[in-house]
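Quick question: what would this complex look like in 3D?
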Amino acid sequence: MFHIIKEKTGATDADWSDWHWQLANSIRDLAGLAGILGNDFRKENIEKVAARFPIQITPFYLSLAASSFSDDPVIMQCTPQTAELDDCVGIPDPFHEQEASPVPRLVHRYYDRALFMACGCCAVHCRHCMRKRVWDECLPAPMDDELTPCVSYLENHPEVREVLISGGDPLTLEDDDIERIISAFASVKSVEMIRIGSRTLVALPQRYTDRLCEILGNAGKAVWIAAHFNHPQELSSEAGEAVLRLMAHGVPVVNQTVLLKGINDDADTLSALFTGLLKLRIKPYYLFHGDPVNGTTCFRTGIAKGVEIMGELRSRISGMALPAFAIDLPEGGGKVRLEPNSYVGESTNGRPIYLKHDGSSVEYW
Ligand code: SF4
C-alpha cells in the first residue's frame, strides 16, 4: 500500500520522512479513510464507532497494510470495528489507575515503579488500546507546575526506582517537552531508570531524529524504549534504522505485544514477529492477553489460547525470542506471568518428569 498512500497523500520523499508531516497529515475521519482505501469503511454503524472512539492513523502506519481489505492485520488494528460498541464485558478503567494517582498525571501502583501520563496524543489510535477511554481528552504536554509535584512525590518515595512515561504516546511530543520531562525525573536521585512506552517505532519511526536520540541518550539515567509491535507487517526498515540510531546513543529497546484475535493469535504469526524483532535488535519482553477494557473485548482471545500458543512457540523459537505471556489483573492486582505447564508428575522412584519441546517426556535427576 506504500505507493498508493504516498501518491494519494501527495507526499514528497522529504514529507514522508518528516514526523511532523506524518502527524499533520494523519487520517482522522471516515472520509479520509474512504478516500484512500475505498468505501468499505462507511458501512454499517462505523460512523457511531468513529464518533465514540476517534480515528488517528499516520500515512506511514497505513502504508504497512498489505492490502486495503478489512481483514488486513494493519487495517484491523487501526480502523473502527462495529464490535467496539457491542461490548458489554469490558469496563473503561479496570486497573483503577485514577484511584492509584497520588498527584495528577502520576500513578503509583507497584512498589518500585511509577507511571507518568505525558500526553493524550498518539501516532495511531490502536483499536485494542487499554486507555481508549481518554482518547478524546487530548491531554497536553505537562507544564512545569505539573511536573514539580510529581518530582516532589518521587523524592519523598525513594522506593520508586523506575518511572514509566506513557500517555497517549509521549514521543508525539516536541523535543523540548520530552527533554523537560526526562530531565525532571532524571533529577530525582532515587530514580535509576526511565522507560518510555511508545508505538512510534511502529507508526512513526521518522520521530527518531538524531536530536531525539541525543536527548534520550544524554538523560544521565538509563532510558529504555518499550515498543509495541503486534504483527510482522509492522517490522519496517525505517523502524530498524531508528533502532540503530537509538542504540548508537545507548538506548535499548524491548517490545510488548498484545495478543489480538484474528490478527496475531497463531504460532506462525508470532514466531515471525518475535524472531523478526530480534533481527531489528529489539528484545521481545511481554505478550499480554487483552485487558477487559470497554470497546476492546472483540480482540480478546481467551487466556488458554495464549498459553497454547506459547507452548507451541517454545518448541519452535529460541528463548531469546520468547517473551513472557502475562495477564494484568483487574483492580490493580498486578501482572501474572503464565507458563505452559511442563511438569508431568513423578516417576516411581520419586524423580520429577518434564515435557520436552517435542511433546515427549523425560525424567530429571
Ligand atoms: S499508541 Fe498506545 S496509547 Fe496510543 S492508542 Fe495505541 S496502544 Fe493506546
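Answer marked as accepted. The radius of gyration is 21 Å.
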